[in-house]
Amino acid sequence: MSILASLQQALADGDIEVIDLTTPLADDTVILELPAQFANTRGLSVTEVSRYDDRGPAWAWNDLQVGEHAGTHLDAPVHWISGRDGKSVDQIEPGRLVGPIVVIDKTAEVAENPDFDLEPEHFEAWIAEHGPLPDNCWVLFRTGWSQYAHSRDTFLNADAEGPHTPGVSVAGAQWLASNPKVSGFGVETVGIDSGQAGTFDPVYPVHYFLLGADKYGLTSLVGLDRLPVTGAMISVSPLNVVGGTGAPARVFAYVER
């Protein structure tokens, strides 16, 4: 039996489960909000074109307006100044968007401290316990934060000091960016950096280092609690926007049962 035939059979038999890691995109999906002095993107807006009526008797369809960085979305290198000469969404090789998943689970730590940041030692500890990172892997940061996705206030978790959401330190971002095994990094929060990353040097270091190193980001993921620490595969399918700095994406995990 061929490899693809074996995969098809495993899917049919339920030996491989497909898990949707995507936040449903609606007009009330919580998106990133920058400080007032900066321009902000839009969420989803849907305008009906026709619905089995005089405008189109046998069909229904809508017009959509949506920001590139709304909901579960991919960040391409050109999203950040450090990657301005890098790839747009349509230029990313498809093979970079499919690969093994590495889950870093810090749910307990984040429950105690919403400002928790991954440091290099957390990645090194994972490797010491589970072995080397696989080639072309996507590191997914499990925090439990997706439980707050239906409430703007709790999901953004902002006060006078700014947002308080988990992420990665400057040193941790450099570690991720410099590791040749890593293709991408995904989070449950609204952005790939921590809420307090605007106070770091450089600001928003995951954006700065990761995208500057031709690696990619995923935000607003759900269902990470259903994934094993190792052994699953990811498939990232952003809208293939020509010149896009990012795009809403459907993200699937394939888990062997």
Q: What is the compact description of this entry?
A:
The chain is α/β, with parallel strands linked by helices. It has helices at residues 3-13, 107-112, 120-130, 152-156, 170-178, 205-212; strands spanning 16-20, 45-53, 56-65, 73-75, 98-105, 117-118, 137-142, 158-159, 162-163, 167-168, 182-187, 216-218, 233-238, 246-256.
Helix content: 10-25%
Report strand %. 25-35%
CATH architecture annotation name: 3-Layer(bba) Sandwich
What is the CATH domain class? Alpha Beta
Low-pLDDT stretches: none
Apparent shape: globular
GO molecular function: arylformamidase activity
GO biological process, one term: L-tryptophan catabolic process to kynurenine
Protein name: Cyclase family protein
Organism: Gulosibacter macacae
Structure in words:
This protein is an alpha/beta fold and 257 residues long. It is built from six helices and 14 strands. It has one domain (3-39, 68-256): Glucose Oxidase, domain 1 (3-Layer(bba) Sandwich), CATH 3.50.30.50. The protein has helices spanning 3-13, 107-112, 120-130, 152-156, 170-178, 205-212; strands spanning 16-20, 45-53, 56-65, 73-75, 98-105, 117-118, 137-142, 158-159, 162-163, 167-168, 182-187, 216-218, 233-238, 246-256. The strands form four sheets. Strands 4-12-11-7-5-13-14 form a seven-stranded mixed barrel. A two-stranded antiparallel sheet has the order 2-3. Strands 6-10 form a two-stranded parallel sheet. Helix 5 runs parallel beside helix 6. The longest helix is centred in the first third of the chain and has 11 residues, at 3-13. It starts with a helix and ends with a strand. The model has no long low-confidence stretch (mean pLDDT 97).
